[in-house]
């Protein structure tokens, strides 16, 4: 009797799309009552990228995806599942952005769907890719975090418009029988009792499109910034400590801690709690702001393209966002060195 070898999910590549247009803190000074000094001190952000009118979420996602597929050394026809995490889809109801991305990549007759987990989207996708691959259902999963967050920002609200930006990141997750190449662990969670901390009230069944939605700007993000900040620090610190403890890994042995890029003060607080040094903690928030589901893959892409991330090196990811949702992951980077 033959036994099939167990398979593991492996992180094979990374790609990103970064829009050209820059919105700097100085630009924001002329739009809302704020200063470069306040934004820098309270968030660490200096500038963020804004997609152009003809760069939609699927365009950015497709460009990031093609880079990820090419870097994985496979072809588009090898992909057997496409999942996109976004809260700024091309269309709010249907079709899914994953279907549109698949079409743009010429990937047809393959399962494709979106997930909604806000900033936690990319790490949620890792948990899905792991489940699909390790159950034997799929072999090469394309996961995408893509956001045109500027489309849901009220550029008169200084509490939110200073934080968010646009962009996309993608990765190919493939099956391997080599356990050393597989994900070590992924943990994803949520608590809907904090749903009102980060919410876009419309459009949806509670607030279908109406004159009231337009008049009251209910299509824009509303955020309880300070409350979210405090909960993010507490939850993330506990979550990363738990995943390290559970897998008996010391924080000093993690070369790349890649947290969600929401606010430098959150990143610093969690990094300090883990006793991480500057070289271990990846920070891109100063140049991209918070790009929600695209934030972690854009940050991974940054250290990959600068030659800092090498094959076999361990990554610790952690993220927090609307829902509220949060997630962490421990996994080696198994892409080809650049
Ligand atoms: O990715 C999803 C998760 N999201 C987050 O993690 C975001 C978490 N939150 C944050 O990053 C921070 O809470 C913010 C950057 C949004 C705000 O920073 P804060 O230190 O929490 O400030 P605050 O909301 O407590 O406000 C302090 C003061 C207030 O003025 P008063 O009431 O003290 O007079 C605000 O009105 O700062 C004022 N303020 C600003 N001032 C200048 C708020 N936004 C601005 C601004 N420019 N843009």
How would you explain this protein's 3D organization?
This protein is of the alpha+beta class and 338 residues long. It folds into two domains: 8-180, Thiolase/Chalcone synthase (Peroxisomal Thiolase, Chain A, domain 1); 185-332, 3-Layer(aba) Sandwich (Peroxisomal Thiolase, Chain A, domain 1). It contains eleven helices and 14 strands. It has helices at 25-29, 36-43, 57-72, 97-104, 121-134, 158-161, 211-216, 225-246, 264-273, 285-288, 295-305; strands spanning 8-11, 15-17, 21-24, 47-50, 81-85, 111-115, 140-148, 166-176, 185-190, 198-199, 222-223, 256-259, 314-321, 325-332. Strand 5, helix 4 and strand 6 form a beta-alpha-beta unit. The mean pLDDT is 97. It binds oxa(dethia)-CoA. The site of oxa(dethia)-CoA (UT7) has 20 residues, from helix 2, helix 6, helix 8 and strand 13. Oxa(dethia)-CoA binds next to helix 2, helix 6, helix 8 and strand 13.
Task: Provide the descriptors you would attach to this structure in a database record.
single chain, 338 residues, alpha+beta, Peroxisomal Thiolase, Chain A, domain 1, 2 domains, six-stranded mixed sheet, globular, binds oxa(dethia)-CoA
